[in-house]
Structures
1.
Amino acid sequence: MIRRRNPGLLRQARLAGPMPWVIAIMIAITVMAAAAGLALSNLADNARAEIEGGLTVQIVEAAPAERDRQAEVALALLTNREEVAEARRVSDAELAALLEPWLGAQPVAEEDAIPIPAMIDVRLRGPATPRQLADLRTALAADAPAARIDAQAGWLTPVFDAIASLQWLAAGLVVLLAATSAAAVWLAARSALGTNRETIEIVHLLGGTDAQIARIFQRSVGIDAAVGGLAGLALGLAATVLLGRQFAQLGSGMVTGGGLGPSDWALLAAIPLGGVVLATLTARATVLSSLRRIL
Amino acid sequence: MPPFASPRVSGEGSIVQFDNVGLRYGTDREVLSDICFTLYPGSFYFLTGASGAGKTSLLRLLYLAQRPSRGVIRMFGTDLITEPRHRLPAFRRRIGVVFQDFRLVPHLSAFDNVALPLRVSGVPESEIRKPVADMLEWVGLDQRSEARPASLSGGEQQRVAIARAVIARPEVLVADEPTGNVDPELALKLLRLFEALNRLGTTVVVATHDLHLLRKVPESLIMRLDRGRLSDPTGALRYPPRPIERATEAVDV
Ligand SMILES: Nc1ncnc2c1ncn2[C@@H]1O[C@H](COP(=O)(O)OP(=O)(O)O)[C@@H](O)[C@H]1O
Ligand SMILES: [Mg+2]
């Protein structure tokens, strides 16, 4: 005989009350925290890939002719080195454009202009190591004594540290929220158990197994969690999309690197699924441990 | 087992055996002490005693709601004291219980309450509708099958409770004061119901403090509880005077 599943021993053993709402809010906040964490992670990855092989060489020399000479020497020297993928002199026009917001428009060649260092943008074949930096410094010291070399990653380290801290914060929030959700579900399952104690005892005395009784509650808690979870997901995603748009409007190059990819969205959509699993397992554990106390 | 051993003394062929059973709630004194008796399949037993004598406590041991504090309980040929907890549900399904307070599930209809033991046993839904409808008709509640317990009278609730207790054809039927709150006429009708089941082979144990009932079932055996002790002056419970023949033929029905 094929064992067909019954429609349920107790059709309407629902968990009334605030359960779905609590879960919806939890899931919404979890989705937002996770989205923030993922966006920060993407942003850090993109930024790091872009700059970790980048060096900036400045020729800090007041006399324009000498500055130009040393810049050409340094450029030639750098271009010939094996570890350098690309070296490019930042043109005076570009520099002027970069500095305009701070210094105002000024004629580049005029003698009384504020001296601006010449800049060479260097891209290495791999990430810049302190060792390579030291080598390059030595190589440049003789012919271009005014050259100063900085790794771009170096002065961005505090930014990366801050992003990493934020990522940890987001991860911590997600963990805390999961724990709080579990506690909320646990409390809800316990109170449902209390109000249904009579029913549970009856089914138990009629020969219902622990698994059968747990299933009744698992199912209703699971449904509540699914309803709440979907509502929370919708809320969380809406907030994430809105925030994302606002950041995009800032137009900053860094923020565009912080967008969410398809796999990120899939991960966010899976959060309510995790919520349902968590709720179901918690309800099961609660019912089983309470049943074990009666014979 | 040696061939010369008296089968009834050894409890062979019995369905329930209590040996030196004691029960205490928490750290209080024992509410049941030195309980020894043997029940044989197909027999009809009355459990009598004053209020507070321990009838409900003894029945709770019998329908596996509770483990005793000491002693041995064997049922269906199995030592239930050493039986692990997860195997007890299967035994409970072989026992029908009419609780003193009915214990109907409040949010289920009369039909679903009666169907509950079948659903617990995993009977397919297609094999539930007819037996439950028949059973409700048998107890005269076919018109009330969709009613919730709260909208049923005390007597109707009692009949739902009885229908639920017998729907799965239990081998043992335990009823705790089933005629407690009903008029004498209905009490007699319910008793006839139990007798009918008994004739189909079910071992029946009815707790009551109504001594009039005892005379209505002449072939019944009587267990008397007095302040937690079972009085068995004639030894009829431990050593039944005669084999119960009616039962053996009824089992084949
Ligand atoms: N759950 C319990 N906890 C503590 N004492 C109980 C409990 N149930 C019954 N008793 C006590 O056990 C004794 C027997 O009770 P009970 O079995 O209900 O007797 P009866 O059914 O014959 O009236 C009484 O003294 C009662 O107070
Ligand atoms: Mg009682």
2.
Amino acid sequence: MWEYSEKVQEHFFSPRNAGAVADANATGDVGSLSCGDALRLTLKVDPETEVILEAGFQTFGCGSAIASSSALTEIIKGKTLDEALKVTNQDIADYLDGLPPEKMHCSVMGREALQAAVANYRGEEWKDDHEEGALVCKCFAVDSVLIEETIRSNKLTTVEEVVNYTKAGGGCSACHEGIEEILAGVLAESGQTFAPSAKSVAVAMPTPPAKMTNLQRMHRIETVLESIRPTLQRDHGDVELVDIDGKNVYVDMKGACAGCQMASVTLEGIQERIIDELGEFVRVLPSQAMPRAERAYG
Amino acid sequence: MSTDTGIQGIYFDNNATTMVDPEVVEAMLPFFTEQFGNPSSMHLFGNKVGLAIKKARAQVQELLGAEHDSEIVFTSCGTESDSTAILSALKAQPDRKEIITTVVEHPAVLALCEHLEKEGYKVHYLEVDGKGRLDLDVYRGLLTDQVAIVSVMWANNETGTLFPVLEMAEMAREAGVLFHTDAVQAVGKVPIDLKSSAIDMLSLSGHKLHAPKGIGVLYLRRNTRFRPLLRGGHQERGRRAGTENTASIVALGKACELAMEHMRHEQTIVRQLRDRLEQGILEAVPYSFVTGDPDNRLPNTANIAFEYIEGEAILLLLNKLGIAASSGSACTSGSLEPSHVMRAMGIPYTAAHGTTRFSLSRYNTMAEVERVIQAVPPIVAQLRKLSPYWSGQGPVEEPEKAFAPAYA
Ligand SMILES: Cc1ncc(COP(=O)(O)O)c(C=O)c1O
Ligand code: FES
């Protein structure tokens, strides 16, 4: 059975704001046809201030769908509509101390119901632009639709490229067969055939670098890290350079990034960016991976 | 997920797996320590083990009603037996490129067939009606000399519905086509007599009949053309290489002997428990119904659809009360689709997601059944209160219209 956090369980067993708000003036109905979950969100909005006074939900769905709906209503009560619209599905998942990757779509549904309700209040038509496919990569929660679209729009032909563009397949590699199948399918659309190579999938190395001084090299690495930080900070995390030792770059992942499953994405992402920038191979490692003696004395 | 219920749990999930019978545990334990020898060895450490395996083979033979004990091939699980059977038929008859199976098979067969389609084989999936039954005329029409093997399950793991495999095997034999049945759910629950049947191959799995996990059997009728999945040593007469899992083989033998002894109990007492459970729940819960074919199914299985709510939520609430069951909902499987079995029977989404399977065993009691009958109605009511399809005492009027969400 799923590994649900205490918080998810608590919101499932005693959901907050269950049921329809009696004199609601905004309603959002959304569903995910593929998984059968459906959600109705009703809001009572103060017409003067646009503050959400009351929020209620009705959910036809699993444990995490109910918990996500409950969390959403708690988060948005007291916010203005504009503030509420800024709530991301990651915020909902964070509020619940995380959801299993297979269940992230439940939090997406919550956010969409909110958008639909706000559109309803403002007399607009809400159209969903997000299509969801079957989950392919469990390590990084990437679905088939995203992989397909990325392959199509970037004309990808190898599993390595799919890893680089989507992260799917960049962890345990168990999903590579599935990725190969999607590649074969998309390539077939344009009359191409997928040509797998026997060698294992590895990030291709760029051409050899022009010589750089150590100081130049360090600056470049710092620049890359600086450019990445805003993205991480947006997800309530951060990264800090700890040491550079030859090909090993040690960093500290902070906040929401620390210890989270996505840390390796970010580490890998950072590594790729540095490799691109320097034109040489480096390994980006968490500072915990520094050799013991150095940590003790250095 | 864990719960701290403090109550003794009620295990109604025996189609998923079963408790190993204490007598079975007792029978297998010496084979880890005192009787650890390799049955192939030429010394007395191995000799006794060889004899124990021989006995186990005879016990399995007895339960299956097989003509010869050499028709019993021990494997590592039901899935391996299924794969071995289907792949063997294809390899032994390279000119035949078609397979007949059904849309409601276990993934052990379905996923393999889907994979074989990618390799160029043609797979015919027999469809089922609203009660999960096959159309034998359609089947007859597909039996040509292009078909390498028919693989049809004896009993469905979700609904317990029984397929007429004896009749289908006869039809296959007449057409000169090999017949395999995945009897993982049937063995030990319904009487089987293979020697009087036309079944060529049959799969069973130990952990569904109170033996441990990781042991299975492929029954292989004498003179059936066969190609092994694993080649190597001479174990199992070269039909399944790899040093024998002796402790588990002994355990499975014992479990088969016990299943034989309890067959009547399964057919009478367990059936009564199931019938009472079903009747009690259906009486107390409006908008619920039995899925599959109630007149023709395993004695231990009740699969009930609770409309307008979702199965995983039901399971979590049951689990809180220490009651274990399963669901056909998408959310319990990790896939986004509700059970392929429910979809194949045309059960609407709003019900398919709420299907809950209660599967009993000889360890269950009437007291447990009554407790579950008490527990279910409030759980269903609680979840319906949250459902957008529900209002007060019944579904909203024209539920599909009153609540028509924008679908992502
Ligand atoms: C009908 C059926 N076939 C095959 C299997 C797979 O058996 P095993 O788990 O031993 O591989 C199962 C078990 O879930 C089953 O119910
Ligand atoms: S599942 Fe995709 S890398 Fe692990």
